[in-house]
Specification:
- By secondary structure, the protein is an alpha+beta fold.
- Among the domains are: about 90 residues, 2-Layer Sandwich (Phosphorylase Kinase, domain 1), CATH 3.30.200; about 180 residues, Transferase(Phosphotransferase) domain 1 (Transferase(Phosphotransferase), domain 1, Orthogonal Bundle), CATH 1.10.510.
- It is about 45% helix and about 5% strand.
- It contains 31 helices and ten strands.
- The strands form three sheets. Strands 1-2-3-5-4 form a five-stranded antiparallel β-sheet.
- Helix 23 runs parallel beside helix 25.
- The termini are far apart.
- This is N-terminal kinase-like protein isoform X1.
- InterPro entries: ARM-like, ARM-type_fold, CIK-Related_Protein, HEAT_type_2, Kinase-like_dom_sf, Prot_kinase_dom.
- GO terms for molecular function: ATP binding; protein kinase activity.
Length: about 800
């Protein structure tokens, strides 16, 4: 070894210093006289394979053949032929002679015989993998014979190597030579180095050196025979010892047997062309071969074929050899997604394959592709990424999320598709913990402020839920400025009852962030209103919240009275049982209300549908910066009666300003939820409107009867239909002495004189100078002047004020 290194340093040739690779351990087998080593690059440490061939005489025939192999490998390029990277030749003084070593550096490969042992495939999976490998070698041989008019001369198990992606590649080009069958005058050997081929691999004409017959045979005759030898060796798992063993066909698959026999025909002219073998053999029609071939020509397929293929792929990969899926299909699929030739459903298959990888391999092989996909303008790709973010979100680093992922995801907050907006919102549950404070306070909260007044109630609800979950990641100043306004002024006043319930639960879950003053003056007054909410679930949550916050205030008061100021100030989340299940509550709420598949068709559910419009970008002027927004405390006497419906999605108010104007109309006597869902009542007819106007006027009663008070009711006063009992109660207080049948309802008369039982007779005016129609004829069908005249006369007779 010392002499070898001395010769390398002091020799006249180019030494190992010209080989920028490190030579590693050898493989146990290689073709011919070559040795096969593992190696790495000096530049980046990437793996390579290094083949070396040594000779003691520069004129050695093996060295000459090796130089021919180097030249051919460098010039012949094909996907199924070993890729050449570098070569060098070293001369070193060894004893009294000179040792010459040829080095070839190629892509990292492994001898086929060793890889078969390593994989250990059996049954159908083994046959499918062998079919794929033979398909690749047959393409390489066909390329040499039919396209390049070259003869390999020694196709066998030793001349095939396997790449890291489990592709089979052809090498060992030492015997490779041009086919000169068209040269009728040639008489010498066509294959200069045919003596390197072992006798068991030689067809009859080559064993006899019958060059005349060889030149008359087609170019593929010798290599078709070699391909038959390869088929025998891989299926029998034995190295071919002699030519007669090729007759043993017990291990050859039945679907391949006819083609195997034609490849080994004793007549060179009748041997099967390898190109025909690829096209016609049934053996190559299997799931693995078809899947890989489809992936390799994916860019030539139309969208319908792609969608069909990728929807079947997740189930298909379960049936294929796991090693081949991870090492061959996964890189193909990642590349197709990255360069845009794969459809959105392919992401599901990619993540399914990625779930079979270790964490380190997933970060290396899958995450880079996913990060690049976030920059895609394809709406379907963006939807698929957001739907599956829980499968890879934890693997993303904080820097990648903040700098590369979030800027692209944020465009979805202002998208025209409600489905995409909701998916973007839900993705923040996974990504928010990885965002910087600058990003959260500067942009995320602005988007959430806008989503809290979104037109979709499910989005408004989920926004409140999300805020409750990410509150712990906000700094103290931001929490003080945002949470109470977001939960009380907006969520608790939402027209959608689940949104109000979410606001109550969010307040309970974040109660450790509020001091007692805020609880007493801003939170409890807003929650107490909900104890009379029309929705039973909201009422139940409101009562629980009131109890919880009162307990906090009570404990604070007890500790303050005892002089334990520090203990009172430290009242926190430990006293609130609801916080223990915060994460579970938030996840279940997001799942139930967020997934479109779980949305009910009822109006309360308001499901969101997937839109196919183009992606919209976030407006540059969304909301004022929260850091500059003034914060106003909500007065405990604030009336919630006249709060309007949630603002439209175009609203740009921030949580710091949303309390402006909430003190308006303090004197309103309405129920606090009258404005949430206003009743749409039909407009009464003119006649009925006049009667109702008359009912509302003050009427003087006899001394024996008490003066009626103004009727108050929570119901709307413009009612189209009045029940029978209500009529009796309404009019009984202003009626004249009881008629004969006091319980008789007000009936509509179609004509005739005034009846004694007419309830309007008691309040009728004296007969006018000109005859007027009786009340029984007027009610419901009378003219408008008659109704006005009737009311005026009644007032003139009974009222002392002269109304």
């Amino acid at each position: 070894m010392f002499n070898f290194l001395k010769g390398v340093v002091g020799g006249s040739g180019t030494g190992l210093k010209d080989l920028p690779y490190n030579i590693g351990g050898p493989y146990p087998s290689a073709w011919g006289s070559w040795s096969h080593f593992r190696g790495t690059s000096n530049d980046d440490g990437s793996p390579v394979s290094i083949f070396s061939l040594s000779g003691s005489n520069p004129q050695d025939g093996h060295l000459a053949a090796g130089r021919n192999g180097v030249k051919r490998l460098r010039t012949v390029r094909h996907p199924n032929i070993l890729s050449f990277l570098h070569s060098t030749e070293v001369e070193a003084i060894e004893g009294s002679g000179t040792k010459v070593t040829i080095y070839i550096v190629t892509e990292p490969v492994m001898p086929l015989s060793e890889k078969i042992k390593e994989l250990g495939l059996e049954g159908t999976q083994r046959d499918e993998y062998y079919a794929w490998g033979l398909h690749q070698i047959a393409k390489a041989v066909s390329f040499l014979n039919n396209d390049c008019k070259l003869v390999h001369g020694n196709v066998c198990l030793a001349s095939v190597v396997v790449t890291q992606s489990l592709d089979w590649k052809l090498h060992a080009f030492d015997v490779l030579s041009e086919y000169d069958g068209t040269n009728g005058t040639a008489t010498g050997p066509m294959l200069q180095y045919e003596w390197l081929v072992q006798s068991q691999y030689k067809p009859m004409e080559l064993a006899k050196s019958d060059w005349t017959m060889i030149r008359k045979s087609p170019p593929w005759a010798i290599d078709s025979w070699g391909l038959g030898c390869l088929i025998y060796e891989i299926f029998s798992s034995l190295k071919l010892g002699k030519t007669e063993e090729l007759r043993n066909t017990a291990s050859i698959p039945k679907s391949l047997l006819p083609d195997y026999q034609r490849l080994l025909s004793s007549m060179p002219s009748r041997r099967l062309n390898t190109s025909k073998l690829i096209e016609n053999s049934e053996y190559f029609q299997n799931k693995l071969v078809n899947t890989i071939l489809f992936m390799e020509i994916l860019s030539l397929k139309d969208s319908v074929e792609k969608d069909t293929f990728f929807h079947k792929l997740p189930n298909l990969v379960e049936q294929l050899p796991r090693q081949i899926v991870l090492k061959k299909l996964l890189p193909l699929l990642a590349s197709a997604l990255e360069f845009g030739s794969a459809a959105a459903p392919a992401l599901t298959a990619l993540l399914k394959m990625g779930s079979w990888l270790s964490a380190e391999e997933f970060d290396l092989k899958v995450l880079p592709t996913i990060v690049k996909l976030f920059a895609s303008n394809d709406r379907a790709i963006r939807v698929s990424l957001l739907q599956h973010i829980d499968q890879y979100g934890e693997s993303l680093s904080a820097q990648v999320v903040d700098e590369q992922v979030y800027p692209h995801i944020a465009t979805g907050f202002a998208d025209t598709s409600a489905f995409l907006r909701e998916l973007t919102l839900k993705s923040m549950l996974v990504l928010a913990p990885k965002l910087s404070q600058r990003t959260m306070s500067g942009t995320l909260l602005k988007y959430l402020s806008k989503l809290q007044v979104d037109e979709e109630p499910a989005i408004r609800t989920n926004t409140t839920i999300l805020l409750g979950n990410i509150a712990s990641y906000l700094n103290e100043g931001t929490r003080k400025r945002v949470l109470i306004n977001a939960f009380t002024v907006r969520a608790l006043r939402d027209a959608f009852s689940p949104a109000r319930g979410a606001g109550v639960m969010a307040l309970c879950a974040t109660s450790s962030y509020y001091d007692v003053t805020e609880i007493a003056t801003r939170i409890l007054p807003n929650i107490v209103v909900l104890t009379i909410d029309p929705d039973s679930d909201v009422k139940s949550k409101a009562f629980q919240a009131v109890d919880q916050f009162l307990q906090i205030v009570r404990q604070y008061n007890e500790k303050s009275n005892a002089g334990d100021i520090a203990g009172a100030a430290s009242l926190g989340i430990s006293s609130m049982p609801g916080n223990a299940s915060l994460l579970g509550w938030a996840m279940s709420s997001l799942t139930l209300k967020g997934k479109p598949s779980d949305q009910t068709p009822l109006a309360a559910a308001n499901s969101v549908t997937l839109a196919t419009t183009t992606t919209s970008t976030a407006s540059s002027g969304l909301i004022e910066t929260l850091s500059t927004a003034p914060v106003h405390c909500v007065s405990s006497g604030t009336d919630f009666a006249d709060q309007s419906m949630p603002a439209s999605p175009t609203s740009t108010d921030g949580w710091g300003e949303i309390e402006n104007g909430i003190h308006e109309e303090q004197d309103s006597d309405k129920d606090g939820w009258d404005d949430i869902e206003p009743l749409e009542e039909p407009k009464p007819s003119p006649a009925l409107e006049n009667i109702q106007a008359a009912q509302r006027r003050p009427v003087s009663l006899p001394v024996s009867q008490p003066k009626p008070q103004a009727a108050t009711s929570l119901r709307p006063k413009s009612t189209a239909k009045v029940t029978e009992d209500k009529d009796d109660d309404l009019w009984g207080s202003i009626a004249a002495p009881p008629p004969k049948s006091s319980s008789k309802p007000l009936n509509v008369k179609t004509g005739g004189a005034v009846d004694d039982d007419d309830p309007w007779a008691a309040i009728a005016a004296p007969p006018p100078t000109t005859k007027a129609k009786p009340l029984s004829a007027v009610r419901g069908i009378g003219t408008k002047p008659a109704a006005l005249k009737l009311g005026a006369q009644r007032i003139n007779r009974t009222s002392s004020s002269g109304m």
